[in-house]
Amino acid sequence: MDFEFGRALNKTTTTTARASAESAIDARLEGDDDESEDDAFYSWRVGGANDLKITHLRDVYRGDVPLVAQPSPFCTTTACPLSGPRTSVEFNSNFVSNSDRVLLNSVAFGSSADPTQTCSLWAETFDPNGCDYVPQWVVRAGPRSEVYFDSDEVHAAIVTCGGLCPGINDVIRSLVNTLEVGYGVKKISGIRYGFKGFFSGVEFMKLNKKTVRNIHTLGGSMLGSGRGGGDVQKIVESIIHHGINMVFVIGGNGTHAGANAISDECAKRGVKVSVVGVPKTIDNDILLLDKTFGFDTAVEEAQKAILAAATEAQSAYRGVGVVKLMGRQSGFITMFATLANGQVDCCLIPETTWAAHGPNGVINYVRNLLDTQGHAVVVLAEGAGQEFVTSTGVDAGGNPKLGDIGQWFCKQLKSELKCDIKYIDPTYMVRGCQANAHDSIMCTVLGQNAVHGAFAGFTGISVGTVSAHTAYLPIPRMIEHERLVDPDGRMWHRTLESTGQPDFF
Amino acid sequence: MDFEFGRALNKTTTTTARASAESAIDARLEGDDDESEDDAFYSWRVGGANDLKITHLRDVYRGDVPLVAQPSPFCTTTACPLSGPRTSVEFNSNFVSNSDRVLLNSVAFGSSADPTQTCSLWAETFDPNGCDYVPQWVVRAGPRSEVYFDSDEVHAAIVTCGGLCPGINDVIRSLVNTLEVGYGVKKISGIRYGFKGFFSGVEFMKLNKKTVRNIHTLGGSMLGSGRGGGDVQKIVESIIHHGINMVFVIGGNGTHAGANAISDECAKRGVKVSVVGVPKTIDNDILLLDKTFGFDTAVEEAQKAILAAATEAQSAYRGVGVVKLMGRQSGFITMFATLANGQVDCCLIPETTWAAHGPNGVINYVRNLLDTQGHAVVVLAEGAGQEFVTSTGVDAGGNPKLGDIGQWFCKQLKSELKCDIKYIDPTYMVRGCQANAHDSIMCTVLGQNAVHGAFAGFTGISVGTVSAHTAYLPIPRMIEHERLVDPDGRMWHRTLESTGQPDFF
Amino acid sequence: MDFEFGRALNKTTTTTARASAESAIDARLEGDDDESEDDAFYSWRVGGANDLKITHLRDVYRGDVPLVAQPSPFCTTTACPLSGPRTSVEFNSNFVSNSDRVLLNSVAFGSSADPTQTCSLWAETFDPNGCDYVPQWVVRAGPRSEVYFDSDEVHAAIVTCGGLCPGINDVIRSLVNTLEVGYGVKKISGIRYGFKGFFSGVEFMKLNKKTVRNIHTLGGSMLGSGRGGGDVQKIVESIIHHGINMVFVIGGNGTHAGANAISDECAKRGVKVSVVGVPKTIDNDILLLDKTFGFDTAVEEAQKAILAAATEAQSAYRGVGVVKLMGRQSGFITMFATLANGQVDCCLIPETTWAAHGPNGVINYVRNLLDTQGHAVVVLAEGAGQEFVTSTGVDAGGNPKLGDIGQWFCKQLKSELKCDIKYIDPTYMVRGCQANAHDSIMCTVLGQNAVHGAFAGFTGISVGTVSAHTAYLPIPRMIEHERLVDPDGRMWHRTLESTGQPDFF
Amino acid sequence: MDFEFGRALNKTTTTTARASAESAIDARLEGDDDESEDDAFYSWRVGGANDLKITHLRDVYRGDVPLVAQPSPFCTTTACPLSGPRTSVEFNSNFVSNSDRVLLNSVAFGSSADPTQTCSLWAETFDPNGCDYVPQWVVRAGPRSEVYFDSDEVHAAIVTCGGLCPGINDVIRSLVNTLEVGYGVKKISGIRYGFKGFFSGVEFMKLNKKTVRNIHTLGGSMLGSGRGGGDVQKIVESIIHHGINMVFVIGGNGTHAGANAISDECAKRGVKVSVVGVPKTIDNDILLLDKTFGFDTAVEEAQKAILAAATEAQSAYRGVGVVKLMGRQSGFITMFATLANGQVDCCLIPETTWAAHGPNGVINYVRNLLDTQGHAVVVLAEGAGQEFVTSTGVDAGGNPKLGDIGQWFCKQLKSELKCDIKYIDPTYMVRGCQANAHDSIMCTVLGQNAVHGAFAGFTGISVGTVSAHTAYLPIPRMIEHERLVDPDGRMWHRTLESTGQPDFF
């Protein structure tokens, strides 16, 4: 499910990205404990830009109480005594060094034959002078040997924002378990129904190992989730009022923007608060990451809807099964569910343009399928073909409302073809289910590392999977724009190979 | 499911690996079309060893008929006409360059504080002089613009060897679809019940798009699988006799050794045959790869067995649930299923040593759990604790037979503790099921790329997922030894964090 | 899933039923082989009406070739030789006697306290003179020792009509296996896309043991299903033209009416054709039966949709989950899925009337739930509240089109309450899936008995489960009207107990 | 899943049954409120035996405080006000009359052709003089208008005994919800780990609506289950000591014997205690009932194991899949899972005898299958072929230990045939899972009716499904012996039809 994601750069942002890369060309990691080590370590890099530096409280905190590092209470060796003081032998083992890095871009393109495709893309973005591959590094996640919080003084808050996604409860459970069991934190508050819960007056939920014990067997968010409410001032006042000093934010792009603003505002006000995000988007549309939690489960469930549609289509005379899947701006679920199912004839995503009518239009293609194989299966992302449907306004989260392309498409089909249409919109059944084993593990790992990151003193960061490793990423870089399917990439081409569909224009 | 796999290097082989690295220190890719481009491309590497070069028919084929490259019939653009000749515009688009590379090692360790842990491991292996990170590149998989086979003359054979694994039928289906639909191959033979099927006299199965249409909805191998039978001479004679020129081998380490030997023997005899492997191991124990197909599904199913064991344990007075999972030498399934389930108290894998008896033994730990929380859940890999159980002989595939550690452990428990043991061995239920959506996609991608690799003229290669991309790998390097869980790695430590178990010695 | 179904008599039809009962008061089974045995057998009945007599070809067939009974080739003993002639010992064992009966009404109501409820209902219907319980018998299904068809001359046709339902392929498979393996029939035709397939020109599908081997692993109908096309003359002409003499019809009420008409027309034309129905209705709305195949699976799937809706509702601030389930005139799926889920607050079915607005309306109830427990889950059948939504026209099957009560209800909610609505219509995902084990067994049993019934010479019958046994029923009595949920029955009351909902008027 | 169960009478007990029937020939229901009504009601019965009378506290209670009936607080109308006093109008509606009856035997056999088969069986058992069908009635379950307990004074106890079965938690949940919400009971205790929990000193678990809210999403028993501990004196002392006056016992045959003894002892000591059983047996081996809860789920899961075995067998050269399923004395799970799967070649149950060796033995049959179709699937119940395996001793519940027929059979196969055996014992995975929708509903209904029965003053009863209705049954009649598969019945014959297996002797 994670093949060839790395290249999903959005062409529309290369200008921004290039500027960013240029300005960062001489940047160095300054926040690490041992700068000389770091210099040596990075000396092999030629012309590398370090624009994925993450923020540490030391960088931004201006409060009166000095920031002091202390040995981590987190036990990283199997020899940790069940009780009693730890010995010095155990101390340095197995912690992750602040200088550990994970490579963001693991493919090097060797050919310059097609100027739009490979080498030159990198050249354009990162190195105007040549075709050389330039590695991009991000900070490896994990427990640090030195922490910046005393467990007894920690008041952690957890908040879940936006739409549902399989695995939210798994993340909450992992956060609570790591805080309580791993670090000995005693005060953990669950904020209800999104950011609003900081100031809405709904009582915080007290969280501990017991309350979260079985929550991963249920879908949804035990805290309740909600859109909007991103009033940074009110939130930070609530944080200060309640003495919260760690905030874990589970949400998507917009929510991460909020998390970053909260981190900034806390720094500005001189309060020592670590804000750490865990990217939650069922659309899998977060930049830089291999994939996000819940996506795997969503594809599994979405595939079942396609299977039902295919069954209906094949069991009807001139049957057409139409499935609308999630994906406001990116077609990842649609693309992967199409590949997993293997019976789809036509896959339409927001990243490509297509005509419905005309000799090369989708409807004509469906007509051809009905005449030859007797049935057709069409899968489209909710954000596909938005130019055909008018819609106005925004939802509570500030996202523009989408027109209903699924209904529109079925209407067009019906008016032009003699066919028997079965339309499925499985959205809430895909979102609301329990995480599968894969996502459950991923959520556990993300939750653990989010806590490690907060204790290590990082803030304004998010935690995600990069080149199959867990890393800390600076929020601003992750939310520059939605990650999109690359219509020139291998994965999309594999999808076309599977459906056999032509260009629709 | 793919976090932090990259570091699973086995310490016992570092000597071999170092020798290999040293001898390869000056090696260059020689098989690429455009050597100068390639040189330029790799110039940034300092001291890099290129020991992951793959073999092309040009390197080894010594037959009389000259080897000729021709334009690929595979259509890589969405503009491919449904019929009629392709235009030149379409030609070069979207093919993968022979110089494209994927990075094998995507983590750089920054610290030298602990000499056994990080920087120095790399130093020891790859660069005796320093702590620098040295990238390791492998060849990116995908369709090439030039192929070395005429579709009309191809006779492809597919063989499945060894134990079952979810997704085998998906791979077969993808191979057949890509051969027939993507390249126009008309002659595809399924070899029955493993390597033996080449010469056992059981008739080959004729494969085409129709025969494989729904096979992915069933577990197992539609061709039948089997161990042993690796008589290279007989196999190659059969290949020559039947005019087979592409062999796709789905199997594990031993099977890949066979595939490599077949490739060598064909070259030696001057016949033009491409042999391509697709790694199949439910244990996930193949070197270099992120993970192998079927592993994700296996973890999902294994987790269900653990859930049943936990239910039994919790519902009984002093209940102990014991689950034995697959993993002859590596504990990946056991480790991941433990993490996915989240209710396991003790996880035992082949890579760690543990005492059953004594004050620090597992039995005493279980006693303590029964006295405190009232029940216990223990999960062990079949290869764990083999020093406690005697066994002799080898199976048909040449693997040493394992002693039954599950039964042994239950017997020890019963004799020492007052408890109610429920023992589950779900092996065949884990192996025999249908692939989930994730593995189904992975299998589709692997099958497609195996065919691309054969048409491109590579032989003695295998196809797998590396740093979240698909790559071609030289078989000898993949089968140096089984891949193992790193007992000092983050993933194992996360597992210990989840179970809360101490050291058992 | 089969509790307390027996009483679901529709009050609106009691007049018809009573007239039918009265006119039949002296009827006797005349078609049985051994009338005297039969008379003796039924002598214990006092005042019993035998209005569930089924039709035999002897009753209606007026063709020139005499109707001859012959020993059944079906082997009913475990001692049947794998080949060779059967011995006389085996002959009579284990066949079902034509006089075997199954009791339709297995509850006797003892109280006359409430005149509308119990004893008097039966009195009104069956026995105007008193409160005595009067048993109603139906013919037990199963293989008969004498059959009226020579296997070599049988040409069987199978047709599937109407909407999809889990298990259709299981029934087809069982029909084909029993025909071919059990009776040695060699000619079996699958009619494509419903009744129309008899004369549409689409080629019949040849069916045999091999073609149906794995079809039960897929949902839908391998033959294709379709509404309408019930042109009896054309169908019978096709039957005669193709020499078909057994017709197995899988469909609902309308389809059964067609089957009965075909049976009558064949008799009228003097052709020897057995027409046997297998009731297929995902709504479970067939009179007299415990339940129909696919219903159990449908409830399982419907419940998943409710679970998703409940998850969404509980995870949102003032969240309301609304699920629309199948059930044009009867609320069985809605009722059972509500009970299975256990988290539903309000269940609305076609059999009850309810107000949406006003102080006792559903909306006010939802408001109250939001104010007290914070969320609400509402499940409604598609046929509920049709008085609120206007709709016109009929579908291809002649059923009146329903207004979309789900959308209407959500709109009302939204306009009156501040709430966050998640609406799910899982219809096609419920219909299109594979049958579960329960339904798979049921389908196997129904298919076997349908073939037994046809060979025994019955026609115009249907096969179903009655009081936990399989029986043959006269089609006209089954299709008098849809079976409905009894709003005064225990099952509906249990549902109210589970939801806690009040009356909505 | 409930077809043709009614006839499963065990021939070995007909003598007992006949004596019982004879002695009861003149019995009359004496405990009902309105005897004359009852007499009238039963007057139509000719020679009927009423040996399924259930016990009421009025029959047995000899304590000092008089037993007083009072109006039920349970609301059975939809018009029940959400709060406030009930009006008289509501009072009598929808309660079940004490005279309502459910018919136990719903098939009448019409033929006397085969004296061992049909009519004469009934004649032998119930009516020595003729072949007439004699109905057998049981008391219909449901809420009564008069109850014998004041809700405020009720202290209910719930105990779960014996092995796990899907749905136990659903029953507990339904009991607690009906007690608390339906009747207003405030004191409910969960007894831990079976009967022993009454006196073991392990603290009772306080149960209420909240504690049971989500327990049905987990398998097992939240209270813990256990075998043995049936010390009636100690249990009754504990009951008296804690002031318990309702005991709900979830368990199998042995547990029900205990429940009955507790009921008797309480009566003897003059304490007013209602003891109500809910039959729990995954083997479905309880007399008189259509089927028991959890059976449907167990068949679904067992079928998955068979599917895995079939996959393994078909994917191996001369592969044999062997599955051992639950069923100590009865083969219901084995038979139904075989039917559901449809790929089994040989099904062996305790009720039939079979030879392993010899020309007609199972091994020879498997040899034949391997030679012809290449593979074989054998499913056997754990209690099958016990004459081949020696075993001694009894388990904690007093059941004789079984020899391991699965291992024995595989060993025989291996020693006689060249084959590749895959053996699966899925027992704990079948028992430990969550109930499916069907069983979840069944459990809800059983739990509700158990509470209704206790409040109505019945004791020494059990609640179960009879002819598709819920009924109260006298415990002694239910536990006369295990219910067995009838080897001459239709269901077993259908199974043989499905497997195609011959007699094995």
UniProtKB/TrEMBL annotation, chains A, B, C, D:
Named cofactor requirement(s): Mg(2+)
**Keyword tags:** ATP-binding, Glycolysis, Kinase, Magnesium, Metal-binding, Nucleotide-binding, Transferase
- Report which superkingdom the organism of origin falls in: Eukaryota
Under the GO molecular function aspect, what terms does this record hold?
Answer: 6-phosphofructokinase activity; ATP binding; metal ion binding
Its GO CC terms are:
cytoplasm
The processes (GO biological process) annotated in the record are:
fructose 6-phosphate metabolic process
Q: Where is this region: Disordered?
A: 16-35
Domain Phosphofructokinase: start-end pairs? 156-452
Catalytic activity field = beta-D-fructose 6-phosphate + ATP = beta-D-fructose 1,6-bisphosphate + ADP + H(+)
What SUPFAM superfamilies would the database entry show?
Phosphofructokinase
Q: Give a short account of what the protein does.
A: Catalyzes the phosphorylation of D-fructose 6-phosphate to fructose 1,6-bisphosphate by ATP, the first committing step of glycolysis.
- From the Swiss-Prot or TrEMBL record, give the protein name: Putative pyrophosphate-fructose-6-phosphate 1-p
Q: Specify the species.
A: Ostreococcus tauri (Marine green alga)
High-level lineage: Eukaryota, Viridiplantae, Chlorophyta, Mamiellophyceae, Mamiellales
